[in-house]
């Protein structure tokens, strides 16, 4: 059975990757902090640490899925050297400390692109606008310039946290609405989100079919919407009153890290090359509903 090391396992995507892929592979999970729901085979490990030997010796992986990252754009802007270390230099450390036959799947982001690009494809030039995007581009750089078999997956994800200490975008929308707290969602930011369960399914497809082919793949939903429209559609699907949700503008947050107004990515290359049907937005929202326990 393939041995897979998954980083970011206390985070939204990583925890679901561990939960789902453990059904098919020998999974070793790592995150920065302990948490109540952590899996049996879990090592607390700081990706900014200089020495990766203990982690690699413990997991002895055939494949690393590198999902761990500092994902808060404002925190990254305020702590650039830590962001570059955790999000980018960690890739170099994995490359240096593992043998050449260990494959690496790197979870990257739409944030490597500027707002001027709409439905960015794999051939478009990365040109990040903030520290977070730059730090993820650095991780891509190390991998692309290595001799390793790799897949860089650029994606935009939505989902729910298995780690009850965490609250992401979707939980924030749902919980605020249930508590009748007013929130604002951007009507001027477009994205193409895929659910963490659907993305996990695609990652499993690539691994189980030995399709880690040293390439960049854009994997997301097939159509775009604004964050406001997403929130309203989600609450409608869950039968939750959406009257506390207001339209807001990213222009009102000029004090924070620069964020793209167009985060959309084109997935045609992946769909055609691997004959995959990716979800549209309605499927993405249904997938959240299927995994939401009130
Ligand atoms: N969420 C999105 O909208 C989005 C969009 C595009 C791409 N991505 C990419 O998808 C991946 C997963 O995102 P996510 O939303 O699941 O992130 P998340 O919920 O914020 O989780 C991040 C994970 O990284 C870990 N981490 C942070 N600093 C660390 C450190 N110094 N050492 C070790 N681990 C550390 C966290 O550990 P602790 O929680 O224990 O601190 C957590 O397990 C990331 O690589 C991100 O760049 C996310």
UniProtKB/TrEMBL annotation:
It comes from the Bacteria. InterPro entries: NAD(P)-bd_dom_sf (IPR036291), RmlD-like-bd (IPR029903). Gene3D superfamilies: NAD(P)-binding Rossmann-like Domain, UDP-galactose 4-epimerase, domain 1. GO terms for biological process: dTDP-rhamnose biosynthetic process. Residues 3-290 form the RmlD-like substrate binding domain. This is RmlD-like substrate binding domain-containing protein. It comes from Aquimarina atlantica. The lineage of its organism: Bacteria, Pseudomonadati, Bacteroidota, Flavobacteriia, Flavobacteriales.
């Amino acid at each position: 059975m393939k041995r897979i090391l998954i980083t970011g396992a206390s985070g939204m995507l990583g925890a679901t990757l561990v939960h789902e892929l453990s059904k098919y592979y020998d999974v070793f999970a790592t995150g920065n902090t302990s948490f109540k729901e952590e899996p049996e085979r879990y090592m607390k490990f700081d990706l900014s640490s200089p020495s990766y030997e203990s982690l690699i010796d413990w997991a002895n992986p055939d494949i690393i899925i590198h999902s761990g990252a500092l994902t808060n754009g404002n925190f990254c802007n305020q702590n650039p050297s830590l962001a570059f270390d955790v999000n980018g230099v960690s890739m170099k450390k994995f490359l240096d400390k593992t043998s050449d036959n260990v494959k690496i799947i790197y979870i990257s982001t739409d944030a490597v692109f500027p707002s001027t690009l709409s439905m960015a494809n794999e051939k478009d030039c990365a040109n990040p606008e903030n520290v977070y995007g730059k730090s993820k581009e650095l991780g891509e750089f190390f991998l692309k310039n290595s001799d390793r078999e790799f897949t860089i997956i650029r994606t935009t994800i939505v989902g729910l946290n298995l780690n009850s200490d965490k609250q992401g975008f979707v939980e924030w929308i749902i919980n605020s609405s249930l508590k009748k707290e007013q929130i604002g969602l951007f009507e001027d930011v477009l994205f193409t989100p895929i659910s963490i369960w659907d993305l996990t399914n695609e990652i499993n497809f690539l691994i189980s079919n030995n399709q880690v082919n040293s390439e960049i793949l854009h994997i997301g939903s097939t159509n775009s919407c604004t964050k406001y429209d997403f929130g309203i559609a989600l609450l409608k699907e869950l039968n939750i009153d959406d009257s506390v949700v207001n339209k807001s503008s990213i222009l009102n947050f000029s004090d924070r890290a620069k964020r793209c107004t167009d985060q959309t990515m084109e997935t045609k290359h992946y769909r055609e090359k691997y004959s995959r049907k990716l979800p549209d937005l309605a499927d993405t929202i249904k997938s959240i509903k299927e995994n939401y326990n009130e």
